[in-house]
Write a structure and sequence with these properties.
Blueprint lengths: L2 H6 L7 E4 L10 E4 L13 E5 L8 H13 L4 E5 L9 H10 L3 E4 L5 H36 L3 H13 L2 E6 L5 E5 L9 E6 L7 E7 L5 H41 L4 H10 L8 E7 L5 H14 L4 E5 L3 E7 L3 H14 L4 E8 L4 H13 L6 E3 L6 H5 L3 H12 L6 H12 L4 H8 L3 H15 L6 H22 L23
Parallel strand pairs: 2-3, 3-4, 4-5, 13-14
Antiparallel strand pairs: 1-5, 6-7, 6-9, 8-9, 10-12, 10-13, 11-12
Helix pairs in contact: 2-3, 4-5, 4-6, 5-6, 6-10, 8-9, 12-16, 13-14, 13-15, 13-16, 14-15
Family: Belongs to the CdaR family.
Pfam family, one: GGDEF_2
InterPro entries: CdaR-like_regulators, CdaR_GGDEF, PucR_C-HTH_dom, PucR_C-HTH_sf, PucR_dom
Length: about 500
């Protein structure tokens, strides 16, 4: 209730306004009674302070100090009881109250303070009941919007913004991206702003409300109801995103393995809203310091800002995605943009391709990361001898590996020896140093390679053939590893940057 309501709605109390007429709209939240000269520590603010003036002396300076002390401690109004210590309220006290804007109400001698207390508490209870009823009405409408609306986030935030006359923003606290907003920005000075964190939620969200007027108890209750509606919506979205994340992972794995027909690929891309004849480049992003879901959440903003259609999935420390681009230069620029959001990542970029050729692009991106050797962005053009092998059909490549390396496929030491000798041009000393073994050990391994494969590591031609087979083996293993989509944690994304963005 306001000071004005106390005076106007309770004529039986015979209260008269003696000072502070311009501040009668001040809200009263409680009643306190004390005669101390300094109320600091005795009140919380917002109280109607009832007193008989036993602490008020005839000194005007003391009277003025007392009024300033009440104002500084947030007292809503002073109820001054006359007829006991003071026949009338001291003039200096009233002048100072007018100056600082503190309402002063004169309480006649025959009106007990307890009657005023009952009047205030009764009005506060009635007001609280009205707030609860209004908040319940809003809660019921929010429930209806959540259940019936296809996009309940837009509907619920728009409804609450109108109810409160406030500007609302919902942000991802990780990327600081504004996920949803409603209401126009206040034209005048923002008098109050409140931010609610979703502390007990797995979703990294913050809801901010700003308005020109005071944020009331009703506003706080409605915002808490909106929080519940937002959490429900994101739980629903997360269930959809988890399923979509797994489906995207399955699709990218099947594309990389070459196990789809053109018709099957067209159907499954279409299920994600992506045009089957559109050109995409594969990007494989690895960051050993971060989780795949967190990496994707950070990259979502870049993809949304650049208005790229994409399909993405995650693994333990990685994200694999197909992004719609015009050429490989655009794809490389997109990778460079990603580094703004994940600065410690390594990114492989495959060629721009369509249809079944997307499998080659995916393998190029994954191989490029594996061969990055300290570079943060590596494209398929940097793969050198790997390039031709990536274009070989999976079954044919596997047959080639089995044919050349069949006898040493399960011996990682011999495979590493082939690679070291190839990288160092057959120089035994350098190869032994790279493997951290003695030259005699290296000679022994070379004899085993010669025995099991029929190819001589001392021969440049044979060594080149062995090296190509080892490179092919790495590609085969990458294909067989595929992608294991996790989807076990929520992904907070804006509508424009979903796991599979529409608009292919």
């Amino acid at each position: 209730m306001q000071v004005r309501d106390l005076v106007d709605d309770n004529p039986d109390l015979e209260l008269t306004v003696a000072a502070g007429v311009r501040e009668l709209d001040t809200a009263i939240t409680w009643v306190a009674t004390t005669e101390v000269d300094d109320v600091t520590g005795w009140v919380d603010g917002g109280e109607l302070l009832l007193m008989m003036g036993s602490n008020i002396t005839r000194q005007e300076d003391q009277q003025r100090r007392y009024v300033r002390n009440l104002k500084e401690n947030g007292i809503a109004a002073l109820g001054f009881g006359t007829g006991i210590r003071h026949r009338v309220i001291p003039k200096a006290l009233l002048d100072e109250a007018d100056r600082v804007g503190l309402p002063v109400v004169e309480v006649p001698y025959h009106i007990p303070f307890v009657r005023i207390t009952h009047a205030v508490f009764g009005a506060l209870n009635d007001e609280r009941d009205r707030v609860l009823e209004d908040a319940l009405r809003v809660s019921n409408e929010l429930t209806r919007l959540v259940v019936r609306s296809g996009d309940s986030l837009t509907a619920t935030m728009g409804f609450v913004s109108q109810e409160l006359g406030a500007r609302l923003e919902l942000r991802d606290t990780v990327t600081r991206q504004v996920i949803a907003e409603a209401g126009s920005r206040p034209r005048g000075r923002v008098e109050q702003q409140v931010e609610l964190e979703f502390e007990d939620s797995t979703f990294p969200l913050a809801l901010t409300a700003a308005k020109e007027g005071t944020i009331t108890e009703f506003d706080h209750q409605v915002l808490r109801h909106l929080q519940s509606a937002v959490m429900y919506e994101f739980a629903r979205r997360n269930a959809v995103d988890v399923a979509r994340l797994r489906l995207a992972g399955d699709l990218l794995t099947d594309i990389a393995r070459g196990s789809l027909t053109e018709a099957e690929l067209t159907t499954r891309l279409g299920a994600f809203g992506l045009a089957p004849d559109a050109a995409f480049a594969a990007l494989h992003i690895i960051d050993d310091t971060d989780d795949g879901e967190e990496i994707l959440r950070k990259l979502t903003r870049a993809l949304g800002d650049l208005r790229r259609s994409y399909l993405a999935t995650t693994s333990q420390h990685a994200v694999t995605l197909l992004a719609r681009v015009g050429d490989v230069e655009q794809a490389a620029c997109l990778a460079a943009e990603f580094l703004r959001y994940v600065p410690t990542a390594r990114i492989g970029v495959g060629r721009v391709a369509k249809g079944l050729d997307l499998g080659t692009s995916l393998m190029e991106a994954r191989t490029a990361v594996a061969e990055s050797r300290g570079q943060q962005v590596v494209t398929y053009r940097d793969l050198q001898s790997f390039g031709p092998l990536l274009a070989v059909p999976p079954n044919a490549l596997k047959l080639y590996v089995d044919d050349v390396l069949g006898g040493i496929l399960d011996n990682e030491k011999l495979l590493a020896t082939v690679e070291a000798l190839a990288q160092h041009g057959g120089h035994w000393g350098n190869a032994a140093e790279a493997l951290q073994v003695h030259r005699h050990t290296l000679r022994y391994r070379a004899n085993q390679i010669r025995q099991f494969t029929g190819l001589d590591p001392d021969s440049p031609d044979h060594r080149s053939q062995l090296w190509m087979a080892v490179a092919a083996l790495r590609i085969v293993r990458l294909r067989e590893a595929g992608h294991e989509p996790r989807g076990d944690r929520p992904s907070v994304t804006s509508e424009g940057g979903d796991i599979a963005r529409l608009g292919g």
